[in-house]
Write a structure and sequence with these properties.
single chain; about 625 residues; Jelly Rolls; 6-stranded antiparallel β-sheet
Amino acid sequence: MYFKSLTRGTRALVLFLLAAALLLPWSARGQSTAGSGKPPGALVRMDMHTAVGVELDEIPAGPQREAAAAWALSQDKNFWVKRAKEQVNLTYYRLVFRQFFYTAPPARGDLPLPPHAAWRFEFPDEPRRVQIGTHDYVAIPYHFQTYIVTDPASPGASEPALSAVGGTWDEPFDLPADPELVMERTGYACLDEFGFPPNSVFEESVYYFYDQTCQVETQATSACHVTQFPTESCTQALTNHVGMLQPNLHFTRVAYDPEIAADFRQGQFTNNSGPDLAAIEEALVDENRVYYRFFTPDSCDIKYGTISQPGWRRLWTFSANTRNDGTKPVHIGDLTNPNNPWLLSNVFEFGNCDQEWDFNYYINFAYITATGVKRAFCIEDTNRYHNDESTPLAGTYQTCNFQGISSGWGDEYQFGISGQWVDITNVDTTQSHDLTYTLNPQEFLCEGQTLDSNNNPVDPTDLSALVFDPTSLTDAHGNPISRIRCNFSSSYAANNVGHVSVSQGPGSFVNNPCDRGQVGPLRDCGFTPPSKTYSCPAGSKVKLSCKTGGSKQVLRVCEVSQMLGVGIPCTYLNSASNTIIDGDSETVTFSCPAVRDATAAGPGGYSLSNAPLVPSGPAEPVACTQN
């Protein structure tokens, strides 16, 4: 699923550091709570000196751009910390699956980031107006620092240069100077969907897929792209459309210090005799959005039942991430082995539509009357959630052919990927209700002690000793499904449910407030919901004359749905037109979008929505007449 080879485009331009000389070594030490019974371990310090900013290019030069710059210059430290975190998040994919980026000797493994709670930031200077490459910015330098806490053998196994105390390693990164609007500005150029179904990534989930090594590819040569095949490499797109920074993430193996380990240790084990799956509610709270998607009759989602009918559907998508807080792994093993008992139990089946091994009955979803069932297309180690002395740096299960979840690691089903939603097309979402997901609802994964034929505990990795008992359930082909024999821990289900109270007015996330500092006409927030639909022959040229009451507004032209009878709140990349309208009349020209869910071929239509050019500006209607 994640096999990569490291290829880098031409490294270009500048690393902007306004006050690099002032960045001093920094150490975060709180009150130590370490107990003397903690096992010895290893510490690796991580440092990155770089900058983060707000790109201003898309705002026309003049009073509006100066106002946006003044707004960015006035932001407090919390704003810049959040933006720096977004930028550091973009190193996630490369570090977790690092072993697949380095294929030449010596062998290298993962160097995953610790959890966010262990991140520290220092800002040695104030934000300033600067150029990054050819791009206009308000930016600020920062120093990111944290410590990896792990076992003594892991640092050297992941990176030979870190085998001994004092060893160092520099991991190079190509990062956007502004981590917001990466997809809006560069499309799919930096997005690695290899191994995922098409359309798995959307504008809000970029960091899960960000891969600086993505090149210009065709379908036959693809190692990154699935949904679209951009004409620029990631580094070219960053240089041309965002502004690229090239910092090194510096790793230093330091002597093990119990006080430092106590300050940066994360995670708590809840089962000492087996695995214990836990819902990560933080991800659910931060990563849930409403959007519209169009499904063709031959869509995999129709086949798998994650959507009840083709056409436009309104979906609440959310991340349902899982952490293993037990001291034993969830072990599935090699699914290419026809004698694997997990395969013979029919819990797993090969999806001819997605070409992956799918696990049934993994998670249940619910929002009011809307429900869903997650078919896990891979159960893998995708994030090291524990930062402690007993959790190794390298994930054991990182392909769809060899599945499981290691102790202290977790599996992420990020919002936006196929089936990671509840269908709310016919659900009133204007009042707050719980959005929930429940892990392992049918107990097909053992959260306790796996048992042999004599009901004695057995190592879950000893597949020859496992026993699977028949159930009344069947797979999609009518084959009976068996359940692993397990002595579940008494409290295994206590952490299996994640929930958050949410509501959504008309439209989608495009109509929500801009709360992360997104600015300019490309942003996908702060737009009015489409209030009216207009007809036109599909593919015909449409010309509108539009004006405002005086302020600059962004007018966005989107598709319509005949089946739902509404305009679709579209993102910038999916719009038919996205035009800045000044107070005077502006001409807007576009090709009439086809009504894709029309009952007959030929009709087209469009809807209009608008937003102030910058979020802090006044919102006012845009009046348009068709010429």
